[in-house]
Structure formats: structure tokens, C-alpha cells
Amino acid sequence: MKSKILLVDTDSDCLISLSGMLKGTGFEVSAATSAEEALELFSTWHFPVVMTAINLYGRDGIELLKQIKRIDDTSQIIVMNGEATLETAMTALRSGAYDYLVKSRIDEAQVISLVEQALEKHRVAEETQRLLQEMKVNNEKLEKANKCLIEMAIRDGLTGLYNHRFFQECHQTEISRSRRHKRQYSLIFFDIDHFKEYNDTHGHVEGDSLLRIIAQITKGRLRQSDFAYRYGGEEFALLLPETDKQGAYIVAESIRARIAEYAFKGRETQPFGKVTISAGVTTFPDDAMEAEEILDKADKAMYLAKKNGRNRVHAFNIGQMTVAVTSTG
Q1: pTM value?
Q2: What is the pLDDT at residue 328?
Q3: What are the tens digits of pLDDT across the range 165-177?
Q4: CATH 3.40.50.2300 applies to domain 4-130
Q5: Which fold has domain 164-327?
Q6: Where is average pLDDT lowest: 108-122, 210-224, 240-254?
Q7: Can you give the residue ranges of every domain in the chain?
Q8: In the chain, which ranges are continuous DSSP H helix?
Q9: Strand, coil or helix: 10
Q10: I want to staple 100 with a disulfide (CB 3.0 to 4.6 A). Which of 24, 89, 312, 327 is the partner?
């Protein structure tokens, strides 16, 4: 079936003549005698090609052209005028017209050829638009897939926390930021007391469940600006930007207390009759100026918490560390 063409002109003789030419070639034709009528017809069917006169009742053909283009930019508009003036032709083409015809010089072969060329341009424009939309959708899908891949690369698969590798990147970034802006940050390092015994007694499925719950408890005690990482095995690291040692100690103690009171399955078999953690806290720049040293001192503070009976939080203190090292020979 041939395409539908919209003709717009106040000259009924011109409409009859053009309509006859187009229908004789198999095109479906609709006709309007005003811009308002043409817009009403266009609102019900987006004609691929519109042929409009310049002079219309109430509104000129150039304004009609612009309005149709705003509705559907793929529609091709052929502008017709009774006189051949360069100024009118250039105005029409600059406004988005496909071509310009002088009524007195119109012949059937020219009209049919021009309409078919306009239809081909419309087809190409629609296909281009479709491909661009398809590309947009595919790019959105690709972007979403890339985000998923990035998340998979930086997340621990079991707990959903960030992983060890991402911790190393974030820690370097945070210490550089804090050094540049002369700000504090704190690191909490903790592990689960007697986790191996829990795993041996209850199995790896329950052990994995315990790790997931501890991750959820930990995230629930942090601000949006804080970051939680599964450092490895039963060890966890927390980065707290803009946080002094006292503030970090309060956070660590809150996590420790919540874990100790949580009714984990089989907790009664643990040495304290409950699941517990031991945690160490260090602060930049108070305790160290380099990332590795900050982590090492948090680990030492955690070791002291374990040495002093577990289920507790220790903030790094150089005097306490000296005593601890000396007492262990």
C-alpha cells in the first residue's frame, strides 16, 4: 500500500490537480484548506510527506512547517508558492522544508519523483531515529551491565561488603584526602572470636550465615559516609572519614555490643556462650601517617583486645603496645 500524503492549500483547483496526480500513482491523499485543519489531521496521523502552500488562511505555510516539525521531525515538508522568489525558497529550506515548488511549473512527473524522494528521506530519517533509540537502549543496558561488573569486582560475594582489594584502594584514597585537607579519619579492624570453633561445630553453612548477619549488623551501625569491608575470612575493616578516635571507639563498641547480644544459632556452644568480636581502633594522623602503618597498628590494638580476654575494643595506644610486646617476651 502506498503512503499517505497530506496536501494543504486554499486553492481548491491546486488541491484537485495534485490529488489526482498522487492518487493516480497509488498514493492515499488527505487535503486541508487551512493550517488549523492540517494540524488537526496531522495529530491523528503523522503523514510522512506534507505538501503545503505558503499562503494559508490565518497562518502561513512556513509556520505550519515549523509546527509539524516540532511534532514529528521525520515528516518531510514540500513547500509550494505561486511565484519563484529566492528569499521565500531560502526561508522555507532554512525552516526545515525538504524542497520548494513553484505552482506554475508543476508537472506530474516532477511531483511524483519529488514525493518519492521525500518518502525515501522520511524512511531513512525514521530508521536513523530507530537505530539511535536502539543504541541509546543498548548503551543504557551496557552501562548497567558495566556497573554490575564493577560492583561484582569490588564486593565480597558472601557478605555484600566491599572486598579486600577495594579496601586497599579506598584506604590509599582516604589517607591522601585526609593528608591533603589536614583532616582525621579512623580505622576499625575486628575479627570474630573463636570463629573456627563455631565453623567446626555448626558447619560452613551456619558459619556463612553468621558472617552475613555480622556484616548486616555492622552496616546498620555506620553512617552513609562510612565504608565496611570484609578484609578476609572472619576479619573486617571499617573506614570512618572525618572521625576522631573517640568517635570511632563508640562505633566499634556499638557493633561489639550488638553482636554479643544477637541470638545467633548455636551461640551457646561458644566459649562465652555467645558470639563475640575483638576490635582495634587507630586514627590518622594521631597514630601514623602511612596507610600500612595505620592498618598495622589497628591490627596490634585488636591483638591486645584478644590478649586481654576478647569481646572488647581497644584503641591504639603506644604505651599499651609496648607493655603488650614486652609481656609476651
Answers
A1: 0.63
A2: 33
A3: 999 999 999 999 9
A4: yes
A5: Alpha-Beta Plaits (3.30.70)
A6: 108-122
A7: 4-130, 164-327
A8: 12-24, 35-44, 61-71, 86-94, 108-154, 164-181, 195-202, 204-220, 245-261, 291-307, 318-327
A9: coil
A10: 89
